[in-house]
Amino acid sequence: MQAVKDNCTLRVVASLEIRSGPLTGRTIELKDEVVIGRENADLTIDDAEISRRHAVVRSVVGAVEVEDLGSSNGTFVDEQRIDAPTRVGGGAKIRLGATVLEVTGVLPVQATRVSEVADPQVTRARPIVDPQVTKARSIVDPQVTRARATVDPQVTRARPIAQPQTVDPGRAPAEVAAAASVPAPSTRAPAAPAAAPGSARNVSLVVGEFVPPTARRSRGLASRSWVPTVLSFGTAVLTAIALVIYFAAQ
Fold first, then answer.
1. Which stretch of DSSP H or E encloses residue 167?
2. pLDDT of 137 over the 90 cut
């Protein structure tokens, strides 16, 4: 174990002692990091089983970190091949090809992958979620939100209002019912039949059968019911005579 005084602070420096291989007996201090390889390395070892840049060993607080740099034959810590940066302590043996290096100057620790060290961002305290945000919500009744059938517009469209019939309050109920049952007489003259060619013209008039009203007025009105009847019949007769004279003159 070697101690280095740096700015009035006593700092322990880890070392690598080569136990076997071409450089057996040599000691390397780990002030920062050391790249080990066959060519272009901080520690060059003439070993055919070692890659040009085989591995890097760096000093960390209270331990040593070993990382393989994608070598062909791999890097071993205590005869266990590593595939990620691994932290080791005093007494650990690092093998690269036929060369074995022993870690000294630090306390013994169990070899641990750096990826297994807990990330401080993962273990840091998280704010507590507001319970009002995460509490359970009531489920909406599906009967409330389900689709409703559309009402047929033909059913709900506006209908015309029937015109009420006006009734004379002075007329008796029986007379009103009789007048409603008797059809109104037509004032249009019927068309005359066409005469055959070469024959005398026959003029005839078809007059419908007169049906006098059956209802009788009460309270002294019976004496007045024949006057409209005579007038209507006389009008019909005069109209028929006029038509006969008209067609005869043609």
1. none
2. no
